[in-house]
Amino acid sequence: MGFRWQTGRRRSPLRQGVLPFLQRSQRLERVFKLAIIGFTLLVILGMILGTGTGRRLVVETPSGVRDAFANLLGTSLEPEEYSGRRQEQRRLGIELTRENLVKVENDHDATFREFLRVTRLDHDSALIRWGNFDWTLALSSAVFEADDSGRSYRLRPNTRSVWLINLSVHNVLAMFEIPDTPEARRLGESVGGRIVPESVQNTNSWGCRGPEPDLSAPVRVMVLGDSNMQGLLVADDQTPSSRLEVRLREEMDSPVSVLNTGHLGYSPEQYYYTLRAYFDRWHPHYVVINLCANDFGDMNVAANWEETDYWLDAITQFCRTREVDFLVVPLPREDNLIGSRNQLVYPAKVTAILDASAKNYLDPIEEFATEEIEQRLAAQRKGRPLSSSPLFNRRYNDNHMSAIGCDLWARIVARRIRLILAQKAVRESAPVARPSGATR
Fold this sequence. Notes:
Elements: H1 20-49, H2 52-73, H3 79-107, H4 110-118, E1 127-131, E2 135-139, E3 144-147, E4 152-155, E5 160-165, E6 177-179, H5 182-190, E7 194-202, E8 219-224, H6 227-230, H7 240-252, E9 256-260, H8 268-282, E10 286-291, H9 302-321, E11 325-330, H10 335-338, H11 348-353, H12 365-381, H13 403-429
Helix pairs in contact: 2-3, 4-5, 7-13, 8-9
């Protein structure tokens, strides 16, 4: 028996009718449900916008989507849009951090609140500014002051401070460099912190760590950098800049003065504005730009490298137009010394974006690795094998350079500076070459 294709128009299935009063009831129910949903969304939106975290999320989520599409298409944002977004993120980060400081004070006892008040880290007096590319830092306003010329913040002149470690607060990136007073020390230790005696820091009248700058020195060097150059958990005479001054004097047999402009949390944008702030005052013969792995934010974000490229180019062009030599030094990471070495992103991407010759770039990783081996060998011979790198402050659970690391950095950098300055001196003193057969 065969099948026959049905021809003609297909009949619609029969539907049961709905009475008019039921239709009105169903419409009202739908309207009521939509109103409830709308009201709920407004309440949620209000709650989100009512907190710093929520406002930051509202700003960053659409930006993240746009960035993803830009990376996918191989395009980049306009500088104005990127700069505007960055400023808004920084503003919201400061707002959120101050809100979180209030919560911290409410969650702790009177002693902790007194500690924050005395060290000027409470929500009323803390200096809350952006740093480390895209972080928000809470700093003691007794040690730091605001800088709205591009640096975000700077060390106060003629100020003595000390580091407190083993202390943290929830949801606030607080830096416990506190005023070095008996009361601040006592309260810091009473709330669980630990004072590092050798970390006492003194700033000069220029707001830089170290002695007063010597403008009469025949060789003047400016060091740009972050906390590694400021010298965390080491003494004033053990910072990289201080040791660089000593090493250069030995190398050149001449008076040398090194200006340490390193500030914790600084990144290339702040390095540039620091250079501008001190250049005409200091008139350096050489500028050292020390880079660190946390100078670039998320190193997997292409826009962050574009921004870094912009600021490094601004720094190098500033030096070139004033005919001042410069040296870019990427600080080695501790894990590349004691573990497997992976430099595919950092510092490899620095060399990819840096517009400079070989003489202007110095990667000290090899000499750090050699010193690491020598230090371990010496410790083994004494029967005290090392569990971490002696070139870093791991004994304090910190990853900044130790006094040994600071001196090694200075020795490596001093050698390069001495050679470049010597080469420049020879070139400037050399007689002008004349074509063969030319008469005077």
